UniProtKB/TrEMBL annotation:
Belongs to the adenylate kinase family. The lineage of its organism: Eukaryota, Viridiplantae, Streptophyta, Embryophyta, Tracheophyta. Keywords: Kinase, Nucleotide-binding, Transferase. Pfam families: ADK (PF00406). This is adenylate kinase.
Amino acid sequence: MAAITRFSKHSAISHVRRCLYSASAAAAAESNSHAPSPIGNYKITRRDPSERNVQWVFLGSPGVGKGTYASRLSTLLGVPHIATGDLVREELASSGPIAKQLTEIVNQGKLVSDEIIISLLSKRLKAGEAKGESGFLLDGFPRTTNQAEILEGVADIDLVVNLRLPESVLIEKCLGRRICGQCGKNFNVASIDVKGLNGSPGISMAPLLPPSSCMSKLVTRSDDTEQVVKERLRIYNEKSQPLEDYYRNQGKLMEFDLPGGIPESWPKLLEALNLDEFEERRSVAA
Ligand code: ADP
C-alpha cells in the first residue's frame, strides 16, 4: 500500500501545473533568477519555485526501480531524469583520467567520493542549465546527508520519493537486471513471487523481457554480482536512515511501498503523486 508521510499532495500538483502551463518559465527565470551558487566546479542558478520545473529526488535501495519510475515520470512531466549512477558509468566508459579509480570503487560496491560525484553532477546540471533546463528528477543523489546539504546549497527540492521493496526482492531484482549493450535499455529477467508473511501482501513481478532484437546483446552490470549487490545494500541501509530523517524532518519525504511490478505500481504511484488525472488527459490528447 502506498503511504504518504507528512507530504502535501498540493505541492506536487502545483509543480506539475507549472510544468504544463508556464510556457514562459525559462524566460521568466532568466530575468528573475537568484545569483548562481557554487557546486563542485560550477555555479548553478537557484530559481524561485514559481519560475521553474519540478526538482524531485528519488530514494530507494539498489534494485528498487528508481531509474524505471523516474524515467517514466521524466517523460510524463518533461523534466530530465538525472541518475548519478549513469554519470559514473559514462565516465567509466569514457576512459577519462578518473575512470580507473572509479572502476575499482564501483566494482566493490562502495560509494564514489563526494568530490568526484559532485563534480560529475555539477557538470551535468550546468550543461542542462545552458540548454534551458530548470528542473530535474534526481536518481541516486543524494545518498548521504552531506550530499543532501550540498544539494540544498543550489536547489530547493520540492519532493523526495522513497521507493521501497523487501530486501529479498531487491537482491533478486539486481541479479536479474540486464542492459542491452546496443540500445542501452534496461530489462529484468527475474520472475519474482514472494509470499506475504504475517498478513502482509505477497509481491509478484513478471520479468521485463527485451524484444528479440536486444536478446543477443544483453549484458549484466559488473557490480550486479551477489556479493557486490549485498555490499551495496549494506551501505545503502547504513546511509539511508539519516538521509530519510533529514528529508522527513523537512516534511518532504513521501514513502511509497511498491505493490508489485510496473503494471501494479505505476498507476498507484501516479495516484500517490496526484498525477493520475494528468496522465489520463495527456494520453487522451496524444
Ligand atoms: P544502485 O542504485 O543500483 O546501487 P547506481 O546506478 O545508482 O546503482 O550507482 C552505481 C554506483 O555509482 C554506486 O554503487 C556508486 O559506486 C556510484 N554512485 C552513484 N551515485 C552515487 C552517489 N550519489 N554518491 C557516491 N557514489 C555514487
